[in-house]
Design brief:
The complex is a heterodimer of chains A (280) and B (267). With 280 residues, chain A is mainly alpha-helical. Helices cover 81% and strands 0% of the residues of chain A. Chain A has eleven helices and no strands. In chain A, α4 runs antiparallel to α9 and α6 crosses α7. The longest helix of chain A is centred in the N-terminal third of the chain and has 42 residues. Helix content of chain B is 39%, strand content 24%. Chain B folds into two domains: 183 residues, P-loop containing nucleotide triphosphate hydrolases (Rossmann fold, 3-Layer(aba) Sandwich); 75 residues, no CATH class. In chain B, β1 and β2 form a beta hairpin. Chain B is built from eight helices and ten strands. The chains are: A mainly alpha (280), B alpha/beta (267). At the A-B interface, α8 and α9 of A face β6 and α2 of B.
Chain lengths: 280, 267
Amino acid sequence: MSATVPVDLARKRRSDARRRRLMVSGGRLVLGVVIVAGWEFGARAGVIDKFFWSQPSDIGATLWRWITEGTDLGPLWEQVLVTMEETVGGFVVGSVFGVVFGVILGSNRLLADILGPYIKGANAIPRVVVGALFAVSLGLDIQSKIATASVLVFFVVFFNAFQGVREVDRNLIANARILGADNRHLTTEIVIPSALSWIVASLHTSFGLALVGAVVGELFGAYQGVGELIYESKNLFDTSGVFAGMLLLASIALIAEALITVLENRLIRWRPPVATETRI
Amino acid sequence: MSPAIRLSGVTKRFLTPSGGVYMALRDLNMTVEAGEFCAVVGPTGCGKSTTLGLISGLEPPSEGVVEVFERPVAGIADGIGYMFQSDAVFPWKTVLENVAAGPRYQRRSHRDARQLAREWIARVGLAGFEDRYPYQLSGGMRKRVALAQSLINGPRILLMDEPFSALDVQTRSLMENELLNLWSASSASVVFVTHDLEEAISLSDRVFVMTAGPGTVKSNYVIDLPRPRNVAEIRFQPRFAAIYEEIWKDLRDEVLVSYERQKRGAA
């Protein structure tokens, strides 16, 4: 019967897809086990120097101790919370300023030409050094970290918003003007939505940078936070503590990444879904 | 009767990015009567779209006068609808929001705008698609959205820049018939730019032939085919063939000039 052929084809394709998914997850698991086990046994066998590179069981033990007994700086959740506050604070402040300035300069060529060299100059400075400045001027509390993080975030979001505004389709502007849109309509209904896909794309990068800013800010001097935890561990030559802190930061970043993806899908529902997943 | 659109001695020059001057239109004269459906045909790059830009007020002329209802055009005037060649529907708005944009920009209340938009969406045959985003629609459906969008403000002048050129032949004649239906229910004057002579003749009352760039009106032909017309079938009439032949003789020379120039430009 010829009608059975497509059914078989569909079934085969489904089973192929399932097998592939299994291969991928299995491969991931195996790779993870190989790395962790190799590290652990390498350290035990003395191939890897435990003092400098620690070992997974020690890192796990350190994390467990932090979770159950708390860290030298206080309970672990407090450290994570402080770093999160700094990161999110810097992310929000930097993004808001970045969007506002990007839209203003993007739609005002004269202002953009006047400020252009200064912005490029400021962008050329390795910006994490402002952390040192803020540690002095704003003190060792949360403000100086928020400031550092927001400076890092600002430039990324600013350049994207600026470019997004510049790239608005001239046809859409013309169409809106013909339909009777005034300048306020053009900004809120055409320019900003159009720039939004650029801006949202930059949020992925900029959240990572906010975390960098918060941690660097803590390294320059802090009372609390995951960065401070890493700094303390470093001073005690406790590499397990450094790795445990890194692990914490990685989980914060991954969770935030997932949240931003949710936000992205919310904000730009109008965009066709991407056919294949290219991001890792 | 006073004309709806009059262009007298209009020249349009553009600055090219390299600093040169490009003349798109030279000494163009054109008159469109109220309620008339006009088509403008001409070879590629003869300034057809530029002409529409001048009438809409999006671009000022370099020389000459553009008048709409006997008033010189200065900036974008009320009462103009414009259908662009490329998709100009707003991708981040749903069908309903897209169509409602016009009345909302004209300061009508949200409720009125939506009510009116629903009526127009039904009129162009998109009822049930109000909440879709443009990417979820076919090319023909997006054109329907654009049509409703440009007609909802009740324009007295409708400018159309090769609006259906991206559509397949069947969808295209469907859309053309619907356009004629909607137009006959209004009293709008239409300026319809196209490179397709068949489309021009089957839709319009008058066809302007433009010269190769810098463009100017070479000649104009009155199309005396009876209305209402069925665009898909009108081309089988002997009268259609006669008109086509007459205009094509005129247009062919300009197309050849333009083609020669492109070849030389490429060489």
